[in-house]
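To illustrate the input format used throughout this study, we show a single complete record. The first block contains the structure-token representation of the backbone; no residue identities are included at this stage. The design step must infer an amino acid for every position from geometry alone.
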């Protein structure tokens, strides 16, 4: 109990100090807000902080770092500052952290350029942009003024950046122990997926869109904005983050003996040629399911039915090479 109280006090002091420091900066100063998750991936990002601060200062910016461990932490800092006075906002974490922070930023109508340090397990959203592995090289990119305007998905008023999904396998990220993710990386997802095969169960889903109507059983469904899911880099080869469309893959119920060959096709990017997979692109769709079905958005807890999904074109301004 003493430790919990101590950490709560430290968080409060940290938050107040940052807000106080921020208020004393001149409005014309170049400011960067860095929101980072110290537990993301292997937890090594914090070891790079001093070098990042030096690089930022050498380029004439002030860096204001803020450590988060929950959505509540993010909301706390955002409520205490004027976001539009920052020149850019950086996020360090995995897909889940980026999802949480950007949802908070959009609720605050933030239109500031976003920079990403992809330091999570799979980093599926950031994979699209081809960031280098070096933190130092990423910092240099994030200090430039090169941008990519990026679409985002809207699911019943909540945003997803990379993927929304439902059915079997879709909540593997939520179920995978963080210790295994940190030690095994993407392999932890694959091992958990193998375990989930024994619980495979089709669900009856009704989908309505201008491009396709579906009323049948499926194993799982992916609604892609990016190209990659769970480290599988070829899930959505035709997807683009700025084409104003979502790429939808429906994996129909199939004989168990056909399932392994289908998963091999998924790993190699040939699943769109399977007779058990339907593919279409759309700007909006409606989905309903009367059964209990796992749902997920960017590795975080998903949505409730009925569901309305749409794309918001070029909603984000992402700092890129």
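Output of the design step:
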């Amino acid at each position: 109990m003493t430790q919990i109280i101590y950490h709560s006090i430290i968080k409060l002091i940290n938050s107040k100090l940052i807000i106080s420091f921020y208020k004393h900066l001149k409005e014309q100063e170049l400011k960067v807000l860095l929101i980072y998750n110290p537990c993301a991936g292997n937890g090594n990002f914090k070891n790079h902080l001093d070098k990042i601060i030096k690089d930022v200062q050498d380029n004439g910016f002030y860096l204001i770092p803020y450590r988060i461990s929950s959505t509540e932490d993010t909301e706390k800092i955002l409520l205490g500052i004027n976001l539009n006075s920052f020149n850019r906002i950086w996020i360090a974490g995995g897909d889940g952290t980026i999802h949480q922070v950007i949802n908070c930023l959009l609720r605050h109508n933030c239109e500031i350029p976003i920079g990403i340090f992809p330091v999570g397990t799979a980093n599926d959203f950031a994979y699209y942009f081809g960031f280098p592995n070096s933190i130092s090289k990423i910092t240099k990119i994030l200090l430039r003024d090169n941008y990519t305007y990026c679409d985002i998905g809207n699911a019943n008023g909540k945003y997803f950046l990379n993927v929304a999904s439902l059915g079997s396998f879709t909540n593997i990220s939520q179920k995978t122990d963080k210790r295994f993710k940190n030690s095994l990386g993407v392999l932890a997802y694959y091992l958990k997926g193998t375990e989930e095969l024994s619980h495979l169960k089709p669900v009856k889903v009704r989908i309505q869109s201008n491009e396709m109507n579906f009323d049948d059983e499926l194993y799982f469904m992916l609604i892609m904005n990016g190209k990659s899911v769970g480290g599988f880099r070829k899930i959505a080869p035709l997807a683009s983050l700025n084409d104003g469309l979502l790429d939808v893959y429906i994996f129909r119920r199939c004989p168990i003996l056909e399932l392994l060959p289908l998963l091999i096709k998924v790993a190699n990017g040939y699943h769109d040629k399977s007779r058990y997979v339907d593919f279409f692109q759309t700007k909006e769709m409606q989905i309903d399911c009367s059964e209990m079905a796992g749902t997920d958005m960017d590795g975080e807890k998903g949505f409730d039915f009925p569901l309305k999904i749409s794309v918001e074109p070029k909603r984000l301004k992402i700092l890129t090479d």
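Structural context for interpreting the output: The radius of gyration is 20 Å. The CA atoms of residues 217 and 314 lie 33 Å apart.
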